[in-house]
Known about the structure:
Blueprint: E1 31-35, H1 47-55, E2 59-62, H2 77-89, E3 93-98, H3 115-119, E4 123-126, H4 131-141, E5 145-147, H5 163-176, E6 182-185, E7 194-204, H6 205-211, E8 223-232, H7 234-246, E9 255-263, H8 276-283, E10 291-293, E11 306-308, E12 311-317, E13 320-325
Parallel strand pairs: 1-2, 1-3, 3-4, 4-5, 7-8, 8-9, 9-10
Antiparallel strand pairs: 5-11, 6-13, 7-12, 12-13
Amino acid sequence: MFGKSFVDIPEPPSEDQHTIKIPTYLKHGDKIGITSPAGYIAIEAIQSAVNKLQSWGYQTVIGDTIGKRNFTFGGTDEERRADFQNMLDDDSIKAIMCARGGYGLVRIIDQLNFEHFKKHPKWIIGFSDATILHAHIHSNYKTASIHSKMCNSFPSDWSVAEAEQIASLESIDQALKGKALKYHIKPNANNRVGRATGTLVGGNLKIIETLCGSGSELDTAGKMLFLEDTDEYLYSIDRMFWSLKRSGKLDKLKGLVIGGFKIKPDDPGDEFGLTLEQIVLEKVGAYEFPVCFGFPVGHQKHNVALICGTKFELEVSPDGANLLSH
């Protein structure tokens, strides 16, 4: 795959370059609200996150949904909506961290009122189901947000946590404080070399696909797209990438970053026949933008913070890949 000459793709003008709002970066003593707009989580399960956030110098505000349960959800739709809305409207809270993912945000996203948020933006933090929030506020309110681990990913015992897990969690603090994010990825024989700069958007592939045609649809034109997913069959991943291609989501990309994909094994005798890499490269064969595989983002211990809606530079070479914030 490295036989092609190095492609440096120029950056076309983007409507986002001068319109994206960057919430105020956090300082010592600022408050971070913790809420569960999707799945249920016990108060005990967020304690390690609370302790670490406080060690970073932040105050924490525990939402009403923490510990509440309505079947799989962190409370009823109305309880989850009200808790998130209160944090959106509370000016003393400078960032909102989702306690966990699961399923549920799509049930309340259209009932949330972002009018106050538009005037007083704050950091929204999370991944997986929180992809709905990242896509919605980027497309509708042109505001940056942080794609990262959530409270249920903080280890109970940091002394035995793996270095990659610790680095991923500490990158949240770096993002919140406005420090430069610089990530190096090992070489992958399937990478497509090139260099590009663009506004970074993305998240969970399944959710991005299901948002197409809705009021939260993600605009990818002229952007750098990153994708991850979990618990999907290869044929389902292929179908989702065909959906992105047929809907034009791949046509005008600046670059494509493929993160972690936890793939369900095929049933014996009913194998799909293509790998993840082959699925992706088949869909982007007509384009020249750089493609990077194996980026540390997704449902895994090494899941670094990325600031959606801000400019990143992607450089892919035979030596690996670098993704750098601007």
